[in-house]
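User: I'm writing a tutorial on reading structure tokens. Could you give me a worked example: one chain, its sequence, then its tokens, then a sentence or two explaining what the tokens reveal?
Assistant: Sure. Here is the example chain.
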Amino acid sequence: MRIRQRSDQPRRVFKDYDLFDESDFTSATKIQSTLRQLMDGSERIHFNLEGLDPERYARWARVFESDGRLWGPNVTNWELYTVSHNDALWSRTTLFGSDENVAAFRKVLGK
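And here are its predicted structure tokens:
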């Protein structure tokens, strides 16, 4: 996911955020909070779906909806879930990838 921030916001890139403490993998809440701040301050959100599987995403989303935990290497799934379940974010989001994959994700997302 690439986020273009609004011009009235100070320019920051993802690496400016201290997200990962290798000794503590419970930092998912910090990751979610930081990504959400970036999304909320964005002008546009560009989401590349290349290499992502819509059926696998759908399975992940069902589990996420049941327990609300960010688990495993699924930050990308959470990013997609977050933008697709927030009308303000979704209106600024452009999906990229093959036409077939974008269509499959739109179907899974109901968008």
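What the tokens reveal: Confidence is low (pLDDT under 50) at residues 11-17, 19-26. The helical segments are 28-40, 54-67, 75-84, 87-90, 99-109.
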